[in-house]
Amino acid sequence: MPKHFTASALAALAAMSMLSGASVAEEAKIVELTQTACQFVEVEDKDHMYKSTKKADCEAINAKTAEERLKSAKVMTLKPGKHVFRVTNKNVPYGLGFYLRGAGLSRLSLPKVSGGGLSQGVSKDYAINLKPGTYYFSCPLNTTPDYTIKVEG
Length: 153
Hints:
Elements: H1 7-26, E1 29-36, E2 39-40, H2 41-44, H3 55-72, E3 76-78, E4 81-89, E5 96-102, E6 113-118, E7 123-130, E8 133-138, E9 147-151
Parallel strand pairs: 1-4, 3-9
Antiparallel strand pairs: 1-2, 4-7, 5-6, 5-8, 8-9
């Protein structure tokens, strides 16, 4: 393979990289989220290693712990635009889901996305075009707290 390029070959490479850069900028940003029993790990910075065999287990755990855990949970900050939330059921032995919606009254005007079918070890993508505002995300089937996302910029 040659170690040098002609001026026209360099120009073609530059044009190709500019074109591919433009298409990359238009692609959705991937946000990876991992569910374990009763929580999303990334925003809590810790897997609490809760044990759950049914939704009621997480309801009881979060009734006791969610308020305190949310005080130190990260608020995700994202730019407006196309996003794909890639959600993984790491080790929960029943089907999970994902629900992202506007916080408070903004739930009426901001976009939302939801779905289920996350068996243990399965990942699913949830695509959404986020508008500026405050959102919550959670899993109603795994009964997680409502975590916050701020969309700004």
